[in-house]
Protein backbone atom coordinates (compact mmCIF):
# COMPACT_ATOMS: atom_id res chain seq x y z
CA UNK A 1 0.00 0.00 0.00
CA UNK A 2 1.26 3.46 -0.86
CA UNK A 3 1.31 5.30 2.45
CA UNK A 4 0.88 8.69 0.93
CA UNK A 5 -2.36 10.56 1.44
CA UNK A 6 -2.95 13.95 -0.14
CA UNK A 7 -5.43 16.76 0.05
CA UNK A 8 -8.14 17.06 -2.62
CA UNK A 9 -9.61 20.55 -2.50
CA UNK A 10 -13.11 21.37 -3.74
CA UNK A 11 -14.22 24.97 -4.30
CA UNK A 12 -16.87 26.55 -2.08
CA UNK A 13 -20.42 26.17 -3.39
CA UNK A 14 -20.51 29.85 -4.53
CA UNK A 15 -17.60 31.97 -5.70
CA UNK A 16 -17.43 35.71 -5.10
CA UNK A 17 -15.53 38.20 -7.26
CA UNK A 18 -11.91 38.06 -6.19
CA UNK A 19 -11.99 34.37 -5.30
CA UNK A 20 -8.75 33.97 -7.28
CA UNK A 21 -6.83 35.55 -4.38
CA UNK A 22 -8.44 33.18 -1.90
CA UNK A 23 -7.44 30.22 -4.04
CA UNK A 24 -3.87 31.52 -4.33
CA UNK A 25 -3.77 31.92 -0.55
CA UNK A 26 -5.09 28.39 -0.02
CA UNK A 27 -2.48 26.90 -2.32
CA UNK A 28 0.24 28.78 -0.43
CA UNK A 29 -0.79 26.81 2.66
CA UNK A 30 0.77 23.52 1.59
CA UNK A 31 0.39 20.47 -0.59
CA UNK A 32 -2.81 20.15 -2.63
CA UNK A 33 -3.09 17.34 -5.18
CA UNK A 34 -6.06 18.66 -7.09
CA UNK A 35 -8.75 21.27 -7.20
CA UNK A 36 -12.32 20.45 -8.20
CA UNK A 37 -14.54 23.27 -9.48
CA UNK A 38 -17.97 22.45 -8.04
CA UNK A 39 -20.62 25.05 -8.81
CA UNK A 40 -23.94 23.27 -8.52
CA UNK A 41 -26.70 24.66 -10.74
CA UNK A 42 -24.53 27.50 -12.00
CA UNK A 43 -25.06 28.60 -15.60
CA UNK A 44 -22.62 27.10 -18.08
CA UNK A 45 -21.14 30.55 -18.77
CA UNK A 46 -20.28 30.96 -15.09
CA UNK A 47 -18.57 27.58 -14.98
CA UNK A 48 -16.59 28.49 -18.11
CA UNK A 49 -15.67 31.86 -16.58
CA UNK A 50 -14.34 30.33 -13.36
CA UNK A 51 -12.56 27.51 -15.16
CA UNK A 52 -10.67 30.07 -17.23
CA UNK A 53 -9.81 32.06 -14.09
CA UNK A 54 -8.91 29.23 -11.71
CA UNK A 55 -7.41 26.50 -13.87
CA UNK A 56 -4.20 28.44 -14.65
CA UNK A 57 -3.72 29.24 -10.96
CA UNK A 58 -3.99 25.56 -10.06
CA UNK A 59 -1.94 24.22 -12.94
CA UNK A 60 0.88 26.73 -12.37
CA UNK A 61 1.34 25.04 -8.98
CA UNK A 62 1.08 21.47 -10.31
CA UNK A 63 -2.41 21.13 -8.87
CA UNK A 64 -4.65 19.14 -11.23
CA UNK A 65 -7.85 20.96 -12.16
CA UNK A 66 -11.01 18.82 -12.27
CA UNK A 67 -14.50 19.89 -13.24
CA UNK A 68 -17.48 18.49 -11.38
CA UNK A 69 -20.46 16.91 -13.15
CA UNK A 70 -19.68 17.68 -16.81
CA UNK A 71 -17.17 15.51 -18.69
CA UNK A 72 -17.80 17.02 -22.16
CA UNK A 73 -17.22 20.54 -20.84
CA UNK A 74 -14.10 19.39 -18.97
CA UNK A 75 -12.72 17.99 -22.22
CA UNK A 76 -13.70 21.09 -24.20
CA UNK A 77 -12.03 23.45 -21.72
CA UNK A 78 -8.83 21.42 -21.42
CA UNK A 79 -9.30 20.50 -17.77
CA UNK A 80 -7.12 17.79 -16.27
CA UNK A 81 -10.23 15.73 -15.69
CA UNK A 82 -13.72 15.48 -14.29
CA UNK A 83 -15.55 14.10 -11.29
CA UNK A 84 -18.87 12.37 -11.99
CA UNK A 85 -21.57 11.15 -9.66
CA UNK A 86 -23.86 8.23 -10.27
CA UNK A 87 -26.38 10.53 -12.01
CA UNK A 88 -23.89 12.60 -13.96
CA UNK A 89 -24.22 10.95 -17.35
CA UNK A 90 -22.54 8.13 -19.18
CA UNK A 91 -19.41 7.06 -17.32
CA UNK A 92 -18.04 4.90 -20.13
CA UNK A 93 -18.59 7.70 -22.65
CA UNK A 94 -16.83 10.10 -20.29
CA UNK A 95 -13.93 7.66 -20.00
CA UNK A 96 -13.50 7.74 -23.78
CA UNK A 97 -13.87 11.50 -23.95
CA UNK A 98 -11.36 12.00 -21.14
CA UNK A 99 -8.82 9.52 -22.43
CA UNK A 100 -5.47 10.43 -20.88
CA UNK A 101 -7.16 12.69 -18.33
CA UNK A 102 -8.44 12.02 -14.83
CA UNK A 103 -11.91 10.58 -14.29
CA UNK A 104 -13.20 10.14 -10.75
CA UNK A 105 -16.50 8.52 -9.79
CA UNK A 106 -18.68 8.88 -6.71
CA UNK A 107 -19.34 5.44 -5.23
CA UNK A 108 -21.12 6.51 -2.00
CA UNK A 109 -20.69 3.59 0.44
CA UNK A 110 -20.89 0.80 -2.11
CA UNK A 111 -18.31 -1.87 -2.92
CA UNK A 112 -20.35 -2.76 -5.98
CA UNK A 113 -20.38 0.79 -7.39
CA UNK A 114 -16.67 1.06 -6.74
CA UNK A 115 -15.82 -2.19 -8.49
CA UNK A 116 -18.01 -1.18 -11.44
CA UNK A 117 -16.24 2.19 -11.61
CA UNK A 118 -12.87 0.49 -11.44
CA UNK A 119 -13.73 -1.94 -14.23
CA UNK A 120 -14.94 1.00 -16.33
CA UNK A 121 -11.53 2.64 -15.96
CA UNK A 122 -12.00 5.23 -13.25
CA UNK A 123 -8.78 6.84 -12.02
CA UNK A 124 -10.19 7.04 -8.52
CA UNK A 125 -13.30 6.10 -6.60
CA UNK A 126 -14.83 8.44 -4.02
CA UNK A 127 -16.49 7.14 -0.86
CA UNK A 128 -18.61 9.18 1.55
CA UNK A 129 -20.02 10.81 3.45
CA UNK A 130 -17.78 9.81 6.37
CA UNK A 131 -19.06 12.54 8.70
CA UNK A 132 -22.05 14.86 8.83
CA UNK A 133 -21.64 17.86 6.55
CA UNK A 134 -23.53 21.05 5.89
CA UNK A 135 -21.98 21.48 2.43
CA UNK A 136 -24.27 18.96 0.75
CA UNK A 137 -27.34 16.96 1.66
CA UNK A 138 -26.05 13.42 1.77
CA UNK A 139 -27.94 10.13 1.70
CA UNK A 140 -25.09 7.68 2.20
CA UNK A 141 -22.79 7.03 5.14
CA UNK A 142 -19.44 5.39 4.44
CA UNK A 143 -17.36 3.69 7.10
CA UNK A 144 -13.74 2.88 7.76
CA UNK A 145 -14.19 -0.78 7.01
CA UNK A 146 -15.07 0.00 3.38
CA UNK A 147 -12.03 2.21 2.98
CA UNK A 148 -9.76 -0.29 4.65
CA UNK A 149 -11.08 -3.16 2.51
CA UNK A 150 -10.76 -1.18 -0.72
CA UNK A 151 -7.23 -0.05 -0.04
CA UNK A 152 -6.08 -3.51 0.94
CA UNK A 153 -7.61 -5.22 -2.11
CA UNK A 154 -7.59 -2.65 -4.93
CA UNK A 155 -4.92 -0.55 -6.59
CA UNK A 156 -7.26 2.21 -7.71
CA UNK A 157 -6.94 5.21 -5.40
CA UNK A 158 -9.74 5.98 -2.94
CA UNK A 159 -10.93 9.47 -2.11
CA UNK A 160 -12.73 10.00 1.20
CA UNK A 161 -15.25 12.85 1.42
CA UNK A 162 -17.86 14.34 3.71
CA UNK A 163 -17.35 16.45 6.81
CA UNK A 164 -13.63 15.76 6.97
CA UNK A 165 -11.55 18.07 9.14
CA UNK A 166 -8.03 18.16 10.54
CA UNK A 167 -9.51 16.98 13.83
CA UNK A 168 -11.33 13.89 12.55
CA UNK A 169 -9.28 12.74 9.55
CA UNK A 170 -6.68 10.48 11.21
CA UNK A 171 -8.69 7.22 11.03
CA UNK A 172 -9.39 7.79 7.33
CA UNK A 173 -5.71 8.28 6.61
CA UNK A 174 -4.83 5.19 8.61
CA UNK A 175 -7.53 3.15 6.88
CA UNK A 176 -5.78 3.84 3.58
CA UNK A 177 -7.49 6.84 1.98
CA UNK A 178 -5.29 8.10 -0.84
CA UNK A 179 -6.94 11.51 -0.88
CA UNK A 180 -9.09 13.51 1.53
CA UNK A 181 -11.59 15.73 -0.27
CA UNK A 182 -12.68 18.80 1.65
CA UNK A 183 -14.67 21.99 1.27
CA UNK A 184 -15.45 23.42 4.71
CA UNK A 185 -12.20 22.40 6.42
CA UNK A 186 -10.33 24.80 4.17
CA UNK A 187 -12.75 27.53 3.10
CA UNK A 188 -14.41 27.89 6.51
CA UNK A 189 -11.22 27.69 8.55
CA UNK A 190 -11.33 30.52 11.12
CA UNK A 191 -7.79 31.62 10.24
CA UNK A 192 -8.33 31.49 6.48
CA UNK A 193 -7.82 28.96 3.71
CA UNK A 194 -4.01 28.78 3.95
CA UNK A 195 -4.35 27.79 7.60
CA UNK A 196 -6.97 25.25 6.58
CA UNK A 197 -4.67 23.62 4.04
CA UNK A 198 -1.76 23.69 6.49
CA UNK A 199 -3.86 22.12 9.24
CA UNK A 200 -5.06 19.33 6.95
CA UNK A 201 -1.53 18.54 5.79
CA UNK A 202 -0.24 18.55 9.37
CA UNK A 203 -3.03 16.20 10.43
CA UNK A 204 -2.34 13.83 7.52
CA UNK A 205 1.38 13.75 8.34
CA UNK A 206 0.66 13.12 12.02
CA UNK A 207 -1.77 10.30 11.19
CA UNK A 208 0.77 8.62 8.93
CA UNK A 209 3.46 8.90 11.59
CA UNK A 210 1.27 7.58 14.41
CA UNK A 211 1.07 3.90 15.31
CA UNK A 212 -1.79 2.31 13.38
CA UNK A 213 -5.01 1.27 15.07
CA UNK A 214 -5.82 -2.39 14.45
CA UNK A 215 -7.15 -2.90 10.92
CA UNK A 216 -10.72 -4.25 10.86
CA UNK A 217 -11.13 -7.78 9.49
CA UNK A 218 -12.36 -7.89 5.90
CA UNK A 219 -15.39 -9.84 4.82
CA UNK A 220 -15.92 -10.90 1.24
C1 LIG B 1 -14.22 13.87 -4.74
C2 LIG B 1 -15.70 13.94 -4.80
N1 LIG B 1 -16.40 12.92 -4.29
C3 LIG B 1 -17.74 12.95 -4.32
C4 LIG B 1 -18.40 14.01 -4.91
C5 LIG B 1 -19.90 14.02 -5.00
O1 LIG B 1 -20.31 13.90 -6.36
P1 LIG B 1 -21.87 13.71 -6.67
O2 LIG B 1 -22.35 12.50 -5.99
O3 LIG B 1 -22.08 13.79 -8.13
O4 LIG B 1 -22.51 14.99 -6.00
P2 LIG B 1 -22.23 16.52 -6.39
O5 LIG B 1 -20.89 16.89 -5.90
O6 LIG B 1 -22.29 16.64 -7.87
O7 LIG B 1 -23.30 17.28 -5.69
C6 LIG B 1 -17.63 15.05 -5.44
N2 LIG B 1 -18.19 16.12 -6.04
N3 LIG B 1 -16.28 14.98 -5.39
C1 LIG C 1 -19.57 17.10 -2.44
C2 LIG C 1 -19.82 16.14 -1.34
N1 LIG C 1 -20.16 14.87 -1.62
C3 LIG C 1 -20.35 14.12 -0.51
S1 LIG C 1 -20.13 15.04 0.89
C4 LIG C 1 -19.74 16.43 -0.01
C5 LIG C 1 -19.44 17.73 0.62
C6 LIG C 1 -18.03 17.80 1.19
O1 LIG C 1 -17.86 19.05 1.80
P1 LIG C 1 -17.29 19.19 3.29
O2 LIG C 1 -15.85 18.85 3.22
O3 LIG C 1 -17.52 20.65 3.62
O4 LIG C 1 -18.08 18.28 4.16
MG1 LIG D 1 -22.27 15.29 -9.41
TrEMBL record:
Q: Look up the record and give one Gene Ontology term from the biological process aspect.
A: thiamine diphosphate biosynthetic process
Has UniProt tagged this entry with the keyword RNA-binding? no
Described by its record, this protein's role is as follows: Condenses 4-methyl-5-(beta-hydroxyethyl)thiazole monophosphate (THZ-P) and 2-methyl-4-amino-5-hydroxymethyl pyrimidine pyrophosphate (HMP-PP) to form thiamine monophosphate (TMP).
The reply to whether Metal-binding figures as a keyword in the UniProt entry is yes
Keywords from UniProt, A to Z, are: Magnesium, Metal-binding, Thiamine biosynthesis, Transferase
Instruction: Give me the comment on cofactor binding.
Output: Binds 1 Mg(2+) ion per subunit.
Q: What metabolic or biological pathway is this protein involved in?
A: Cofactor biosynthesis; thiamine diphosphate biosynthesis; thiamine phosphate from 4-amino-2-methyl-5-diphosphomethylpyrimidine and 4-methyl-5-(2-phosphoethyl)-thiazole: step 1/1
Which protein, by its recorded name, is this?
Thiamine-phosphate synthase
What GO cellular-component annotations does this UniProt entry give? cytoplasm
One term of GO molecular function:
magnesium ion binding
**What organism is recorded for this protein?**
Roseococcus suduntuyensis
| Reaction catalyzed | 4-methyl-5-(2-phosphooxyethyl)-thiazole + 4-amino-2-methyl-5-(diphosphooxymethyl)pyrimidine + H(+) = thiamine phosphate + diphosphate; 2-(2-carboxy-4-methylthiazol-5-yl)ethyl phosphate + 4-amino-2-methyl-5-(diphosphooxymethyl)pyrimidine + 2 H(+) = thiamine phosphate + CO2 + diphosphate; 2-[(2R,5Z)-2-carboxy-4-methylthiazol-5(2H)-ylidene]ethyl phosphate + 4-amino-2-methyl-5-(diphosphooxymethyl)pyrimidine + 2 H(+) = thiamine phosphate + CO2 + diphosphate
